[in-house]
Amino acid sequence: MEMQDTDSKLDRFLKKEKSYLEDLKEVDLKKNWVRFQQTEKVRSPKAVDYLFRPKYRFLFRAAAAAILLLVVVSGLYITTYLPTDHMVQACAEPGHTDFLLSDGTAISLNVGAVLNYPEKLKHRVREVSLSGEAFFEVKRADKSPFYVYVGEMIVQVAGTSFNIREDVSGSIEVSVIEGKVLFYPSGMEDEAIRLSAGQRSVYRADQQELEIEETASENFLFWKTGTLIYEDTPLQKVFVELELYFKRKIVMEDPEILKNRWYSTHQGQTLYEIIDELCLYFDLEWIERNDTILVQK
Amino acid sequence: MSKKPTANQAFEMLFNEYFRPLTVFAKQYVRIQEVAEDIVQDLFLYLHEKGDFDITKEGAAYQLYKLVRYRCLNHIEYQRIRKKQNPEIWTEAQNNPYDPLEAVALIELEHKYLQALESLSPKCREVFEKSRLEGRKNQEIADEMKLSKRTVETHVSNALKVMRKILKEYLRVIVF
Q1: What is the pLDDT confidence band of residue A51, given thresholds at 50, 70 and 90?
Q2: Do A6 and B171 touch (CB under 8 A)?
């Protein structure tokens, strides 16, 4: 029965028009088998795949876990142990002290000056606080302004060199050698004055407004450089500066003498040597009495 | 006596058994023989790399057709996107009015038939094709091929025996 059925079916099938036979004949099996073997050979060495096989996957997991752990631990270490905000206090030794901050800013402290600064300056804002006199050569970095907090004032710069002197009386003088400096009372940035090279400003507690003066010379850096330069300077001013820089009282008997003008460069000289030179030039004499130097005809 | 075939031999058998019908099947979707061959080649590479395809599992053959189908549909979708982006390179409308999955049984059957033909001796095949495909009389064939009528009859009956044996399974399933 079944045989018959199959036969009649086969018969019908053989008589039937073949829809796909020609298509099937067109597929070249041998050629495709060769092609497959060649492609398969090229793709066969699965060096990379190998590692991703389940057998090795745990290695990847372990490696990933190890890296994650490392990142977390080092992150914790950095945030807790690395001295990012660690403050350092520098006090000037006799003479003056030169040192560098972490950003490359060079600072000289005059006798008695105290500077507080972070061991590692922040990137956004570099901040230090000062009392006393110091000279700054701030490393240029436009995107991170440098702030010096001194007494009630703030000195803000990008990159310049300047000198700050704070008196015992609380007066604060900023003198700029190079670049530009903003000088303003704490919290009053709007009232900042802008000092350029060769200018200075003095803040006094009793003074209402800040004024900009021209600095005739760089003698204010005498404490650092030991150099005094006078070019056509009235003696009056010379004596005021000498009093200031050598911290001695100088008295002139005859005010007329003070109108004379003085040209000279004093490098590494003592006060006595300078006074000697002056007296020789103007035909004067001087005596020392109770820490005061008295100059007379 | 019956040695178990090695993995490579087994794969070659799988390839021989399915490459052609799968390609014809793919061609129903993609219309171009070369594209169909590429798709099926790619499928076999995939199967070979995966290495755990077992054709003896139930429904495995149907799975193969489905895999080809997905690949074809992907190809068509890819072409469609390309067509969207470059309408000018796509001229022929590719709408298929019927689902080639329905044709799988027939493709397989005709493939079996082709395999049966290929398994015959060349003479036998020639006689059989003349007899059944071209519908010629045995005497005509005998005259043309310079054989006795008897020989022609033997060839045809032998061929039918082979056909019956090979196609039996498939014929039982299919309904004309």
Answers
A1: low
A2: yes
Does B19 reach chain A within 8 Å, measured CB to CB?
Answer: yes
Q: Say if domain A87-214 classifies as CATH 3.40.50.360.
A: no
B92 with B106, same domain: the answer is no
Residues ≥6 apart with Cβ < 8 Å to B120: B128, B158, B159, B162
Domain edges within chain A: 2-81, 87-214, 226-296
Whether residues B86 and B42 fall in one domain: yes
Q: Are B136 and B71 in a shared domain?
A: no
For residues B21, B24, B29, B35, the Cα torsion angle rounded to the nearest 10 degrees is 110
Cβ of residue B169 closer than 8 Å to a chain A Cβ? no
Q: Which two tokens stand for residue B9?
A: 């031999």
Residue A145, CB half-sphere, CA atoms under 13 Å: how many? Answer: 11
| Tens digits of residue pLDDT in B53-108 | 888 888 888 889 989 999 998 888 887 777 676 655 445 444 555 667 778 888 88
Could you tell me the strand order of the sheet in which A249-252 lies?
Answer: A249-252, A292-296, A285-289
For A45, name the nearest residue in chain B, comparing CA atoms only. B49
- CB–CB contact B176 A9 (8 Å): yes
The verdict on B167 touching A (C-beta cutoff 8 Å) is: yes
End-to-end CA distance of chain A: 156
Give me A201's structure tokens.
Answer: 């400003």
- Separation of alpha carbons A201 and A163, rounded Å: 11
ipTM confidence score: 0.73
Residues within 8 A of B (CB atoms), A 185-244 only: none
Condensed to tens digits (0 to 9), the pLDDT of residues A237-263 reads 888 888 888 888 888 877 787 888 888
The interaxial angle of helices B33-50 and B7-30, nearest 10 deg, is: 150
* CATH topology for the A226-296 domain: Phage tail protein beta-alpha-beta fold (3.55.50)
pTM beyond 0.80, yes or no = no
Chain B, residues 87-146, CB within 8 A of chain A, namely: 103, 106-107, 109-111, 113-114, 132
